[in-house]
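Question:
Write out your own:
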Amino acid sequence: MATSIQDLFEGGIDTFLQEDTFIFNGLRRLLDQQFSRLSAIEQSIMYWLAINREWTTIADLQGDIVPALPKQRLLETLEALSRRSLIEHNQARFTQQPVVMEYVTEQLIERVSEVLQAPQASLSIFNSHSLIKATAKDYVRESQIRLILQPIAQRLIEQFSPATAIAEHLRGVLDIVRQGTATN
């Protein structure tokens, strides 16, 4: 990153920080490789840690994950993610480094946006992950809105303009969700 800051910003760290992104070039490729190799449950845990936005206990993670995951499997998965240096742990609580959290949040936004734009694809992400946790502290919920929901909304606005087109599209998505719920 130091080389990139030197090359792109003439060494101006303040200018780099104003760009409000820490993932680019080689780091993105590395994270893409690591994330694509993760199992579905590992990706799910990574999404939940990004959604939670702060240190999370094993019990909280176990409560978040749908469908329920046996505690032994959760512990094994957390250990595997830790060995890959994708998560940090302290006193049986877990989180992600800020750069990893930013990357995983971007992946979650991308996945949700794709599903919302083409709802005939699987809507399972909405059955397994919440984008805002009602039980989260106020500052965490505000962060979830700002860093997850607002970017998704912005993508929908860019894809479907005017607002009536967004509303019509989302009604169609809701109808698909209702049909899926009725058949289950």
Remarks:
- The chain is about 70% helix and 5% strand.
- The chain has one domain: 23-183.
